[in-house]
Write a structure and sequence with these properties.
Elements lengths: L5 H13 L17 H33 L15 H24 L25 H14 L14
């Protein structure tokens, strides 16, 4: 199995199990669906779906934290554990970082082979990704990593 798709198939198996596959039912995924490109496109689609689900989840978490008016303590109490809001947000962000990296890997070396891309930046819209999608994904990763420490402004950093 191509290692780039292992995460996709693991997530697909997990999703099938969570959806109610029970007993001795074995979820078997064939890499040869008649078209290897189809397998690759399904893996890319899975990343896009996870991105949408993560974006909605993250926004709901952020709205909740704002509504509660959570403020970080200037000095964490020794032995304090992370708040569950902080933990959930950090897990969501970490999952999106991993998902974006996986999508970038799946799209290498030619995103246009798996996605219908706009022929120019001007033709890009919400339904048609731009020809520079690989660069956009890299900028997203860079920005998310740059902002990682910003959570200290919202939550008390655990003092273990």
């Amino acid at each position: 199995m191509d290692e780039r798709f292992r995460g996709f198939f693991d997530a697909l198996r997990q999703g099938a199990q969570e959806a109610g596959a029970s007993g001795g039912l074995e979820i078997s995924i064939q890499l040869t669906l008649g078209d290897q490109t189809l397998v690759q496109r399904l893996a890319v689609f899975n990343c896009v779906v996870r991105n949408a689900r993560g974006a909605v989840s993250y926004q709901a978490q952020l709205d909740r934290v704002k509504q509660l008016g959570i403020k970080p303590l200037p000095y964490a109490v020794s032995g304090s554990l992370p708040e569950w809001d902080r933990q959930l947000m950090m897990e969501t962000v970490r999952a999106e970082l991993d998902n974006t990296a996986m999508l970038m890997e799946l799209l290498r070396p030619d995103p246009g082979a798996l996605l219908d891309l706009a022929s120019s930046k001007e033709e890009e819209d919400i339904r048609l990704l731009g020809p520079d999608i690989a660069d956009q994904l890299q900028r997203k990763l860079n920005l998310m990593n740059t902002k990682w420490e910003d959570y200290k402004r919202v939550f008390t950093t655990p003092n273990w």
